[in-house]
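User: Need the bound-state model for guanosine-5'-diphosphate:
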Amino acid sequence: EVADDQPVQNGLNLRSPICCIMGHVDAGKTKLLDCIRGTRVQEGEAGGITQQIGATYFPAENIRERTKELKANAKLNVPGLLVIDTPGHKSFTNLRSRGSSLCDIAVLVVDIMHGLEPQTIESLNFLKKGNTNFVIALNKVDRLYGWKTCRNAPIGKAIGQQSKDVMMEFNTRLTQIITQFKEQGLNTELYYKNKEMGDTYNIVPTSAISGEGIPDLLLLLVQWAPKTMIKRLTCSEKLQCTVLEVKVVEGHGTTIDVVLVNGMLHEGDRIVVCGMQGPVVTSIRALLTPHPMRELRVKGTYLHHKEIKVVQGIKIAAQGLQHAIAGTSLYVVGPNDDIEYIKESAMDDVNSVISRIDKS
Ligand code: GDP
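Assistant: Bound-state model below.
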């Protein structure tokens, strides 16, 4: 079975930003991902959300639809948003593709009832170190005593429906949390009050249970974030591809799951990845993605592609991958490339990955 559906590129030629979700255990990372992913998946392919290898893809149309109430009909300059599926995996901000973090933007989830916790601060330090942009989801607003549910509503609308007491508790907690961020050296502000976007980080109150604030969060990720990183998101021909995982799959042997950030991959491409016992040079036997419809996804069956060129999660089957190392870059050997040089570049990654593993 062969698929060749490639989304049309936008005028500015920006690629989809890659997003990961971080924060303290129990802050609601998994639930938040479920919430932004789940709403439309039930309605089949209309929403266009596709689950990929290690990631979920949200097309711009889906996000536009879900943010309608924000009257933000402004055009979205990115084709969509790719959210990495394993929340809280701190290696994702650490995973590098040619020197820069795989994630373009992160959502830092903070429980409004708990404020900053040890792993919030740990995540924060990762983000600072990697110079990764992020938005703060101040989650579990529905737990404020007396909160009136406004399912999937923009946060401004939801807040407008709350009683004085709820607002008082909300403001007290918000002020405390802004102070806690300040103690970490960061200025933060409710996003709709934030006039200094860029220097002051945005806070979006959310509920991953009833969906308040989720439209705002999505819109920030696809509309505001790209404005701050036009250069980073401009599509280039140069291959940028990061190995997420090395896995044995029945019928395919050892495979690697990768995120293609930029450039193109073809069946048959000669590739080099970093391995435990030196560089692995091999050829792509199969470029695989899951079937678009969940129901059709029988375990172990994938769509085969002749080539893939947009940001997405892909499974690659090839010989000799059993020693490949997750978190390193994948290289393609072109007809005029010096293979020895590429092998060296591939192995350059290993030292940095190993030193990061040691530290954590
Ligand atoms: P993670 O460890 O950060 O991935 O946290 P989970 O997503 O597993 O959530 C931890 C617990 O908090 C679960 O029992 C969730 O149901 C609950 N939870 C998450 N988000 C919310 C929220 O917005 N409101 C409420 N009331 N509970 C939440």
